[in-house]
TrEMBL record:
Region annotation Disordered: where it falls in the sequence: 571-592, 615-736
Identification of the protein by name: NIBL1 protein
Family the entry assigns: Belongs to the Niban family.
Gene3D superfamilies named in the record: Pleckstrin-homology domain (PH domain)/Phosphotyrosine-binding domain (PTB)
Pfam families named in the record: Niban2, PH_Niban2
Naturally occurring in which organism (per UniProt): Formicarius rufipectus
PROSITE patterns documented for this protein: PH_DOMAIN
Gene: Fam129b
Amino acid sequence: EKTGKVLEEFCRCYKEQYGVALFNSVRYEIEGNGGPQAQLLHRKLPLEDHVIYSGNIFQYIEENKKWRNRFCVVPHNYGLVLYENKLAYERELPPRVLVNSAGYKILTSMDQYLELVNNSLPGVTPKSGHSPILKCPTDFPLILWHPYARHYYFCVMTGKEQEKWQAVFQDCVRHCNNGISEDSRVEAPAFTDAVRRYRQSKEQYGTWDMLCGNETQILSNLVMEELLPELRSTIGPRLKGKAPERQRTWIQISDAVYRMVYEQTSARYDAAVAGCEQERPRLESTIRTDMDQIITSKEHLASKIRAFVLPKAEVCVRNHVQPYISSILEALMTPTSQGFAEVREVFFKEVTDMNLNVVNEGGLEKLVEYMEKLSHLAFHPVKMQSCYEKMDQLKLEGLQQRFDVSSTSVFKQRAQIHMRQQMDDAVYTFETLLHQELGKLQGKDDLCKSIQRILERVLKKFDYDSSTVRKKFFREALLQITIPFLLKKLAPTCKGELAKFQELIFEDFANFILVENTYEEVVLQSVMKDIMQAVKEAAVQRKHNLYRDSMVMHNSDPNLHLLGEGIPIEWGEEYPGQPEPEPAADRRRRAKQVVSVIQDDEGALPYEMGSEALLQPHSPEPREQQEPSPGAPPSSPDGVEGIRQALAQESLGDGVEPIVQHSTPASSKARADVPPEVEVTPAPPRAESPSPAAGTACHRPGEQETGEDMPPLGGECSPPQPTGTTESGEGVQTEF
C-alpha cells in the first residue's frame, strides 16, 4: 500500500518532468551550447574483458553462524561475486551470492558497526557483558552496512589485506552509487528532477544520501525512508529474545521488506517509463514543429515570475547566501584540487618509472609489458587510493547545518569519479600518442625521449581539462548546496502564489513548460551570478592551479581526436617478440586482472582453516566439520574460538606472512613459483554458456546480474530453498 502511494505520486511527477526534459534535449540538439572542448581523449570501453580484482576472503554465513572462506571476484561492472572457492569459479559453477553495493557503507571496525546497529532499533541495546550481535575471529573486519538491506560480513588476516580490500570495496560502492546513466539526456534528468520534486512536496529540500544506485534502487530507498519508521514503531516492541537476537531479527525483517518494495517498485516504474516512451514520438513531433512558439511562451512566463520572485530572492541571497559562498568554495577547492594534483603526480610517476624500466630492461618488449599495466591505472583502486583519500578532508563545518547538507559524501564521490575519469583520459591520450610514434623510433634513446616528450604534452592537456572539470564541479556543488536552501526560505512567501501563473501557459505547450520548473530557474539565476564570480576570482588569483576562463585551447591537436576514434590498442598482440595471440573466442573467455591478488594459491592460504576441511578436491560442496557428540558441551554459536585456534595453527605451520604479489601481464613469461592463474583470471563467460549444474537456470554473472541493472543486493542464482536443506547444512543464501 505504501509503495503504491509513493509510486503513484512519483510517476505523476516523472510524467511531467519527462516532457520538460525532452524539450530541453531537443532544444540543446538544435541550438547547441557546449562548453570548452576537452583536450584529452575519452576511452569508450575502458574495462572490456577485464576483472578488477579477485582473491580469497572470509565471509560470515548468517544461516549457520559460521565463517567460510570465499573466492571473491570483482568484474568490470563492479559487482561483488562470491564463489565457494577458486575451483568453483574456474569450473564456471554458479556463485554463492551476488552483491550490488549501491547505498552501502564500508566499515572496518566492530565498534562502528555495533553503533549503527544499536541506533537502527532504538531502545534495544545489549547489556554490558552480553554477547554482541556478531563476533569477528580476526582484528581486521570488513562490513558492508546498509540502512535497509541485509549486511555482509567479511574479515582478513592482516592490516595490508584489509586496506586493499577496503579500497576495492569502496571502488565498487563509488561505481554502483553512480548508477544512473549520464548518456541519457531525457530519462536521467526527468528521473532526478522527479525525485527532487517529490521530496520537496514532503518539505525535504536538502541533499539526500540515498540518491544512489539505479532508478529502482533509488525509488525503493524513497519508499523505505517513509515506510521504515512505521514498521519500526509497529514491529519493534513485539520482537522477542535478547537484544542481539532482536537486532538480528530486525535486520532480516527490514531486508525482506526492502526486497518486496524493490520488486513492486521495479514493475511500476518500468510501466511508467514504457508509457512515456510510447508518447515520445508525438511529443517530439510537437516540439520540433512549434519550437519557436514554445520558447517564446516560456520566456513570457519566466518574465512574469521573475518580476514577482526576483526582488525577494535577491534579498535572501544577499543576506543568507552571498556571505558564505567564498567559505563553501574554499572548503570544496582545497581537497578537490589536492586530489587532482595527486592524480597528476601518480600518472607522472607511473610513466616516468616505466620509461626508466624500459630503457634499463630491454626496449620495445618491456614497453608493451608496462603499457598493458599502465592502460588500466585509473581502475586500480589501490594505486588510486592516495588520490581518493584527499577528499576525506572535505568538511563544511557549520555551513553543513546552515544549508541543510546532511552529508558531504555526495560531493566526495562525485569528485572521486571525476578524478578517475581524468586519470583514464590522460592514460588513454598518452598511449594513443605513443602508439602513433612507435613506427618512427630508432633505438632506446629515441624511445626514451619520445616518452618524455609525449608525457609533457599530455600533462599540459591534463592541466587544462582538470581546471575545466574542477570549475564545473565547484559551480554545480555550490548550486546543489544553495538552491535547496533558497527554495526552502522562499517557499512560505512564493510557493502559494505560483498557481496564478498557470493560466499564462498555452494548453498545447503544457507538457513542456511547468510553472514550478520556471520558478526554480528564476531562483537559480538569482544566485548564479555570485557563484560564477566567486569561481572566476579564484581562477584569476591562480588559486589551486585553476585557469582563467579567457584561456581557451582551441584544436591544439586537430588530428588527435580522430586517433581516438580508431580501434582500441592491443599492446600484447601488435608487436613482435610477444606470445601468439589467443583466438577471439578464448580471449573473450579470459580476462586480465587490473589488481594483482594478494595470495599465491599454491598450498593452503594462511586463513583457509585447512582447505581439505572446507572442500573435497572433486566436490563443489564444502564438507562440514564432524558433529559433536550429544554429551559434549556446545560450542560457541559463531565458532569464533575454534576458528581462532585453526587460524593460529595454520599460520604457525606456514611460518610466513602473506606476500603481496604484483601481477605479470599475459604477454610476459610466468614465473615458475607463481601459477598462471594468478596473472590471468578467467572472465565470466557469455550469457549463452550453459551452466554445469543440470536442472537449474543458473549461469555466470553477466552485465545485469553484477552491475547497475541487478537487484539492489546480493542475489542467489539458484531458486530459494529453506535454510539448512543442503547436505553441508550451510544452506544457500536465498537472494532473488
